[in-house]
Amino acid sequence: MAGRAVPPYVALSYCWGDGIQGGVCTTANLSTLLEGMALCELPLTIRDAVQVAIASGINWVWVDRLCIVQDDPQDLEVELRNMAGIYANASPVLSAACAQNSEDGFLSTREAPQNFLLPFDIAGDEPGHVLLHEQYSFADRSISFIDQRAWTFQEHAMAPRLLRFGEVQTEWRCTEAHLFDEPAYSKTSSFYQKTR
């Protein structure tokens, strides 16, 4: 799209999994794909990315297996050189961190952390209760399958805005903040400025 304004888009960072599944652009099916395809024909992880984009008001999704002709060495060479720009300019990069492959998807229902009422007595006072809120370890966030892949590490590093869908938390990372479902782990730009 050189010389043209690029509309806002999300880029998907995910693991393909073993073997090549359906929904891959090749020289044999390029003309058919350009005519369009049913969303239900795509792997679940890609369908989830489309759903997030639509909910965000973004009409375009960049997915490597659909936007790069996988069996064309020239197209691969050109597009691989553009990867830094693709991920750097996405609004945002969606990371399917909880998906081990393209069929797993990342928009699943997670169990909410549990709350517990712990009764206690203080001599001479009314009985009381303390509310305990289950928190996840920060380590739960960092051991996802996607973190073990060099390609996805690179995609995350290039992304100035990253929305990461993990197994136990959703995480937003940008230059101004690093936010989690669990507020205890969230940090804003004022935190970063104070710790430099």
Describe this structure in words.
This protein is α/β, with parallel strands linked by helices. It has one domain (10-109, 136-194). Helices cover 29% and strands 18% of the residues. It is built from 8 helices and 9 strands. It has helices spanning 30-35, 44-55, 64-67, 73-81, 83-88, 139-142, 150-158, 189-194, and strands at residues 10-13, 61-62, 93-95, 115-120, 128-133, 162-165, 170-173, 177-180, 187-188. Strands 2-1-3-6-7-8-9 form a 7-stranded mixed beta sheet. A hairpin with a 4-residue loop joins strand 6 (162-165) and strand 7. It is elongated. Residues 191-196 have low confidence and may be disordered.
Number of E strands: 9
Give the CA-based shape: elongated
Helix content bin: 25-40%
- Can you write the helix and strand succession as a string? EHHEHHHEEEHHEEEEH
Largest sheet: 7 strands, mixed
Question: Helix and strand layout, with pairings?
Answer:
Layout: E1 10-13, H1 30-35, H2 44-55, E2 61-62, H3 64-67, H4 73-81, H5 83-88, E3 93-95, E4 115-120, E5 128-133, H6 139-142, H7 150-158, E6 162-165, E7 170-173, E8 177-180, E9 187-188, H8 189-194
